[in-house]
Amino acid sequence: MTTTTSITVRVPAKVNVQLAVGAARPDGFHDLANVFLAVGLYDEVTATPADTLRITAEGHDVDRIPLDRTNLAARAAELLAARHGIEPNVHLHIRKDIPVAGGMAGGSADAAGALLACDTLWSTGASRSELLDICAELGSDVPFSLVGGAALGRGRGELLTPLPVGGTFHWVFAVADGGLSTPAVYGEFDRLTAGTDVPEPEAAPALLAALESGDATALAAALANDLQPAALSLRPSLSATLEAGTAAGALAALVSGSGPTTAFLAKDAEAAGQVARELLASGTCRQVRVAGSPAAGATVL
Ligand SMILES: C[C@@](CO)(OP(=O)(O)O)[C@H](O)COP(=O)(O)OP(=O)(O)OC[C@H]1O[C@@H](n2ccc(N)nc2=O)[C@H](O)[C@@H]1O
Ligand SMILES: Nc1ncnc2c1ncn2[C@@H]1O[C@H](COP(=O)(O)OP(=O)(O)O)[C@@H](O)[C@H]1O
């Protein structure tokens, strides 16, 4: 008889094809109309039984993520274990390919991955809705990392409605030096919008229709990120990256979420390769990545 000694879960990154941000709420969060699209860049989380909770990581920039119990993967294991009255004795190994602190939800991916891996390893039998509740407790973006595909996130982003996507979209991502703090970018949004009437966030019908039809040109025309002025204010050098990608033939360019990763929508796979080469040669970013979308959510391998 063989016993399963470890479980590996693969989890995608995201880009926000629309990020409409409302005014700050009394709890400090912002109500959103957050149109998430999962993209084919992945972290993997492997859960193995151990004597105590332990986190290890490999990949680019893992020196910038905590390996103690503040790691979102560790917090996911602890929350699940506490709900089921068991000890979170597990070794979680993170293989990181999603840029760290880049606005692509890498930490959220690791949290969703750890949750699904531990749930499978421990046979807790948690329902999908219990897993989604735990995800929402861990962070606003974590539920989407679990479900993947495309979805509209309301509330602070955690209340998801799946969205239909009618084709494959081709993206190039320019990875910047260093990260941007998500709370700092929301804080800068508040500063820049102070004294103005911030409208209720709404998903744009034209954007939802472009996703559904798989029309890259229509999606390019509808891409919108209300956090982009704040990210550019904190990191003005991103303007040059956006311009370089547009000059290289991207249909559209925007900051991914809170940044500093920038995202470029290309007409097809060939155009994406061309944009990637020219962006890298422009010297306006540290690294480029090409990825298709939509991508599946957290998946046990
Ligand atoms: C901006 C977005 C867009 O998808 O992601 P990133 O681009 O950073 O990955 C998200 O809203 C980030 O979600 P996430 O990173 O899960 O945030 P959380 O851990 O829940 O919150 C971190 C902090 O961000 C701010 N925050 C987050 C979500 C929200 N709707 N309003 C906020 O004001 C708050 O200051 C909060 O304390
Ligand atoms: N497992 C994790 N992976 C990445 N970052 C993590 C993790 N756990 C905690 N963090 C911290 O969360 C912050 C946000 O990182 P990340 O989720 O990669 O970026 P973003 O919120 O911009 O998408 C960073 O300060 C990082 O150190």
Automatic annotation (TrEMBL):
The entry's keywords: ATP-binding, Isoprene biosynthesis, Kinase, Nucleotide-binding, Transferase
Documented EC number(s): 2.7.1.148
Record: residues binding ATP: 99-109
Any one of the GO BP annotations: terpenoid biosynthetic process
Residues at the active site: 14, 141
Source organism superkingdom: Bacteria
Reaction(s) the record says it catalyses: 4-CDP-2-C-methyl-D-erythritol + ATP = 4-CDP-2-C-methyl-D-erythritol 2-phosphate + ADP + H(+)
Gene3D superfamilies in UniProt: 3.30.230.10, GHMP kinase, C-terminal domain (3.30.70.890)
GHMP kinase N-terminal domain span: 71-149
Record-linked SUPFAM superfamilies: GHMP Kinase, C-terminal domain, Ribosomal protein S5 domain 2-like
Listed InterPro entries: GHMP_kinase_C_dom, GHMP_kinase_C_sf, GHMP_kinase_N_dom, IspE, Ribosomal_Su5_D2-typ_SF, Ribsml_uS5_D2-typ_fold_subgr
Pathways per UniProt: Isoprenoid biosynthesis; isopentenyl diphosphate biosynthesis via DXP pathway; isopentenyl diphosphate from 1-deoxy-D-xylulose 5-phosphate: step 3/6
Similarity comment: family membership: Belongs to the GHMP kinase family. IspE subfamily.
NCBIfam families on file: ispE, PRK03188.1
Described purpose of this protein according to its UniProt entry: Catalyzes the phosphorylation of the position 2 hydroxy group of 4-diphosphocytidyl-2C-methyl-D-erythritol.
Name of the protein: 4-diphosphocytidyl-2-C-methyl-D-erythritol kinase
UniProt organism field: Streptomyces sioyaensis
Gene from which this protein is expressed: ispE
